[in-house]
Amino acid sequence: MIQISKKLLRNRLRKKRNNLSGSTVKSLSVLISKSLNQDKFFVNCENVVGYVPFENEPIISFYSKKEVLLPKINNMKLTFHRNTKEFQINKYGISEPKNTEIIPIDKIKLILIPLIAFNKSLFRIGYGGGYYDRTLSDFQNKKNRPKLWGIGYDFQLTNTNFQSNSDIRLDKVITEKNIYV
């Protein structure tokens, strides 16, 4: 039952996000970036895992100098790499860094995670591959794990409790209208 509701939500909200105009994505992204860049924890992070926007995901602008790391699929999990601005396209059509040097997750303070849907309990629906959940499950109960912040649009908020035992809870979700904690 949970998987069916996730699939329906994923399809409906992915379609809605894909129908956003380029100018709407840019204007909403500016608001999201402003909220993010005003957050004290974010400001004090030396490195941050971001993402290369895909299918109208918010475009994050970093106002201060940070080392930006990017995820790459590696053996059913994600590894994190410095952004050298050289990319390759993975099997899903998503740009990944060509850089092969892996930055250990214990050296990372903050991971920004795009989403297709989220609920007020701060669980997210992604594309369905489970890469973030598998990668972060080993660190779920550790005190020094990175903060996990979802990045999305306010229309992606749903009242549905779709989460399962394998889903990792976010610490925060930032949209153009709200910060959910």
Helix share, percent: 10-25%
Tell me the strand order in the biggest sheet.
6-9-11-12
Q: Would you tell me the overall average pLDDT? A: 93
- C-alpha-based Rg, rounded: 15 Å
Give the strand content.
15-25%
Oligomer: single chain
Order of helices and strands: HHHEEEEEEEEHEEEE
Shape: globular
The first-to-last residue Cα distance is 27 Å
Sheet with the most strands, sense and barrel status: 4 strands, mixed
pLDDT below 50 for ≥5 consecutive residues: which ranges?
A: none
Number of strands: 12
Please work out how many helical segments DSSP would assign.
4
Q: Quickly give the structural class.
A: alpha/beta
Detailed description of the structure:
By secondary structure, this protein is of the alpha/beta class. The protein has 4 helices and 12 strands. The chain has helices spanning 2-18, 22-37, 40-44, 131-137, and strands spanning 47-49, 67-74, 77-82, 87-89, 95-97, 110-114, 117-119, 124-125, 147-151, 157-158, 172-174, 179-180. The strands form 4 sheets. The protein has a 4-stranded mixed beta sheet, covered by helices on one side. A 3-stranded mixed beta sheet has the order 1-2-3.
